Amino acid sequence: MTRTPVSTLAAALVAGALLCACSQPDSAATNTAAANTPAPSASAAPQPANVDVLRFKIGALDAVALKDGDIDAANDGKTFAIGQPADAINALLTAAGQPTDTLHLSIQPLLVRSGAQVLLFDTGAADASFARAGRLPASLRAAGVEPSQVTDIFLSHHHPDHVGGLLGKDGALAFPNAKIHLSAPEWEAMKKDDGSAKLVAAIAPKVETFQPGAAIVPGVVTAVAVDRHTPGHSAYEIASGDQRLLYIGDTAHHFVISVQRPEWTVQYDQNAALAQTSRRALMQRAADGNLRIYAVHFPFPGLGRFKAQGDSFVWEPER
Known about the structure:
By secondary structure, this protein is an alpha+beta fold. 26% of the residues lie in helices and 27% in strands. The protein contains nine helices and 18 strands. The chain has helices at 8-22, 27-36, 86-95, 136-142, 160-163, 184-192, 197-203, 257-260, 272-289, and strands at 53-58, 61-66, 69-74, 80-82, 102-107, 110-114, 117-121, 152-154, 179-183, 207-210, 215-217, 221-225, 234-240, 243-247, 265-266, 292-294, 303-309, 312-317. The strands form four sheets. It has a seven-stranded mixed beta sheet. Strands 11-12-13-14-16-17-18 form a seven-stranded mixed beta sheet. A two-stranded antiparallel sheet has the order 3-5. The protein is globular and about 50 Å long. It starts with 7 loop residues before the first helix and ends with a strand.
């Protein structure tokens, strides 16, 4: 993003002219000086900011929000706020300045560098039919990282908008050198899922499971169990010094409905009642502790905080 002034040659020519007024150097010396005159350097064209990449810090750690794509869900009471009156849902959305016909979810995996380790949290939806996604590889490279450089992948759970990027279109591992971390209960559930059989077979040699709440990378990454979106759904706390970031996975999907009404039923939750209790508990803990949050499905880049408001919460984005 720097501009290099094209002045070296001009300066040399002016100096040469002044010297010629005082003396007449021989032609060999003149030719030598000309040969040694550096060529003017081309100005670097300014590069536009990549809207799919946002760099930030977690203490001393370098982190990057990586856009993979988007999901649009109809506001028809079949996915979010199941069983709630349409008027109540629409009033909530309207008050937040949101459309009432469609609920928009973003998809943004998280990249963190910790020493020699390159950590990726979830892998996006890739070519899943329900999403407009698959931009993670380009976002990753825009952040200066090749897929082969990723050393560790942390999966919140095995839904396709979080594991979709694990394999390339050829069926090979998209991140061939990465360990794949997920909770032991989630891995067991994934192995029993017939729809995940191909993926399970491909990633099995790379999988390292952990118990809910385990310190996976001591001092840096700790699992935080959030029941019961899936059998072993996990959030992750990322730490550096006294700074913390809580990656919440699918604890909350929509930045208005999920946050302001955490007890409203979501189709994706396997055990709705337990998931609702877990959602409220995590938001309460985050609000009480003023925790910095990374929400993979909130508007890009998904950075912000939950703030208590009455008996509920609101989302306060960083930007």
